[in-house]
Amino acid sequence: MFDCRSVITSANFRQGAIYSSARIAATAKEKEQLHRTGAIAVEMEAGGSGANARIAFRTNVDDFVEADADHPIFLKGEGIRTRPYVLVRDGLESLIARPVYYRLAEMSVPGPSGRAGVWSNGVFFELEAG
Asked: What is the side-by-side strand order in the sheet with 116-120?
């Protein structure tokens, strides 16, 4: 006699194993990223416009920082490995999470050099690698 419960249980187990393996891989990747940067900017608030705009970030370790001359937004890496960061404090660089970066890109305007970027606290931050 065929027992469908064993098939369902077996399928759930296999799916769970696949999910667990994927989650472990993602966690390892996140830990490596966190080790390299120290923090990840996971939220952003923006207000104002033009040079008077203000952009603030919250990191995954609950640091809050407004982008300004002392806390610049910058790009590191080359080619497809270029990543956006913000300087948080004491040399701690925070990787800007992809969804947050997409919001920044939506806000971007042409800057003095003609490259796309954003204004915050009177400073223009280029978002295009050059």
From this structure: 109-110, 116-120, 123-126
* pLDDT band of 28, cuts 50, 70, 90: low
Tell me which CATH homologous superfamily contains domain 38-126: duf1285 protein (2.30.270.10)
Per-domain boundaries in the chain: 1-34, 38-126
Burial 23-37 (b: 16+ CB within 10 A, else e): eeeeeeeeeeeeeeb
pTM attached to this predicted model: 0.70
Residue type at position 76: K
Q: What is the mean pLDDT of the chain?
A: 79
